[in-house]
Amino acid sequence: MSFVSSADPHPQLAACVAAETETVDAILARQPDGAAGAAGLSPVQLRRVLLFVEHNLDDDLSLATLAAVIGLSPSHFARRFKAALGEAPHRYVLARRVNGAKRLLLETEMPLAEIAAATGFSSQGHLTGIFGRAVGMTPGAYRTRRNRCRAFLLAGGVKEDFYTAA
After folding, report:
1. Where are the alpha helices (DSSP H) in 23-165?
2. Is the N end or the C end of the chain the one with fewer CB atoms within 10 Å?
């Protein structure tokens, strides 16, 4: 889901996108070796389900759907997922949808309603509510901040100075 234009003259903006969002590999890297253990999912199962979520944000990501990806019952999957990651599957899915929305807000000019649909939110209002609670600002304010950052960089500023200059 990468939409950064190669014509963008500031690689610092790409660095901003990377700093504001989190990849599946980064999530997996946070897990100590064997952290899933007997109570959680195996590393292969965990990677498979996390990648499935990432590639299907706009689809049904119900407990039953996620459990079917690795062949477990929904209740067994929910317990093992929480043991592996420390959070419930639904909370994880919402966090990944917010992450996807952040990426689209930073990289594209898509309307908010389209971003909501592309990341699996039922409406723009649903996106705004969940995003606001998770990030501390509305999606529109987040995009406005991105635009100010881009203008700052185009004027010769340095990304590290943006937050102190604002």
Report:
1. 24-29, 43-55, 63-69, 74-85, 89-107, 112-118, 124-135, 139-154, 159-165
2. C
CA distance 28 to 148: 32
CB-based contact 29:130 (threshold 8 Å): no
The 3-state DSSP class for residue 102 equals helix
**Per-residue model confidence (pLDDT) at position 37:** 53
What lies within 8 Å, CB to CB, of 154 at 6+ separation is: 9, 10
Q: How far is CA 24 from the centre of its chain?
A: 9
Q: For residue 165, give both structure tokens.
A: 């200059």
| Mean pLDDT, contiguous 10-residue spans, the chain (166 residues) | 45 68 84 61 94 95 97 96 94 96 91 96 96 94 84 69 55
How many Å apart are CA 140 and CA 128, to the nearest integer? Answer: 9
The Cα 138–Cα 51 span in angstroms is 27
Report the C-alpha gap between 64 and 72 in whole angstroms. Answer: 9
Q: Is 23 helix (H, G, I), strand (E, B) or coil?
A: coil
Task: Say whether 59 sits in a helix, a strand or coil.
Answer: coil
What's the confidence (pLDDT) of residue 41?
92
Residue 27: the pLDDT is: 86
